[in-house]
């Protein structure tokens, strides 16, 4: 009976020692791979496989960890840590202003050309009507100049942002 108790105690307190061998390798893209099955290691990387024996770890299937993700994230930022969204938001309002000013300029220019053509075709009319037409033509011309100034301002701001992005080594595609 005493032997039975000793054997039982030894069996209860003796834990089986679990160990697992982990194989790791780095592929041509710099991605580190881990697996517990040597047959899952591609043949071209078997000569560089490093084995690591881990104890008391549950057995898992192949695990892939991509280390270059940090490098990709770093490339998606400029040298000041600003990303694509920052640059797109810097450019967006100026592009909107430019589009709006160009649209308004086209409308004002069309009105100006129509009025000047109408005035040149008119042969008869009162002196007062002629002066009113000239005043209207001047207003349309001032409106065109105002929109042209807005276009110039937006283009200069976009050039300035482009230079800043270049100095920050931001991806030029972020400004489109």
Write structural notes for this entry.
With 176 residues, the protein is of the alpha+beta class. Helix content is 56%, strand content 12%. Strands 3-1-2-4 form a 4-stranded antiparallel β-sheet, with no helix packed on it. A hairpin with a 5-residue loop joins strand 1 (19-26) and strand 2 (32-35). Helix 3 runs antiparallel to helix 4 (127-167). Mean pLDDT is 81; it is low at 70-74.
Give the topology, please.
Elements: H1 2-13, E1 19-26, E2 32-35, E3 50-55, E4 63-65, H2 69-75, H3 84-121, H4 127-167
Antiparallel strand pairs: 1-2, 1-3, 2-4
Strand order of the largest sheet: 3-1-2-4
Strand content: 5-15%
How far is the first residue's CA from the last residue's CA?
Answer: 86 Å
Q: Classify the helix fraction into a percent range.
A: 55-70%
Largest sheet: 4 strands, antiparallel
Query: Uncertain spans, ≥5 residues at pLDDT below 50?
Result: 70-74
Count of individual helical segments:
4
Counting helices, strands and paired strands, the structural category is alpha+beta
Mean pLDDT: 81
Order of helices and strands: HEEEEHHH
What's the shape?
rod-shaped
Number of β-strand runs: 4
Radius of gyration: 38 Å
Give a nutshell description of this structure.
With 176 residues, this protein is α+β, with helices and mostly antiparallel strands. It has helices at 2-13, 69-75, 84-121, 127-167, and strands at 19-26, 32-35, 50-55, 63-65.
């Amino acid at each position: 009976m005493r032997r039975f108790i000793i054997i039982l105690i030894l069996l209860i307190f003796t834990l089986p020692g679990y160990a697992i061998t982990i194989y790791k390798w780095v592929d041509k893209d710099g991605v580190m791979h881990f697996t517990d099955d040597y047959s899952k290691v591609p043949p071209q990387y078997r000569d560089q496989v490093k084995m690591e024996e881990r104890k008391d770890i549950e057995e898992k299937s192949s695990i892939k960890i991509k280390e270059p993700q940090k490098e990709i994230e770093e490339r998606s930022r400029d040298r000041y840590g600003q990303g694509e969204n920052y640059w797109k938001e810097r450019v967006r309002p100026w592009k909107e202003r430019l589009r709006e000013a160009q649209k308004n300029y086209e409308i004002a220019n069309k009105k100006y050309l129509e009025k000047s053509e109408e005035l040149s075709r008119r042969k008869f009319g009162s002196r007062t009507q002629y002066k009113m037409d000239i005043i209207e033509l001047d207003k349309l011309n001032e409106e065109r100049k105002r929109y042209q100034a807005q276009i110039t301002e937006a283009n200069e701001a976009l050039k300035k942002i482009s230079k800043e992005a270049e100095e920050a080594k931001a991806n030029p595609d972020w400004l489109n």
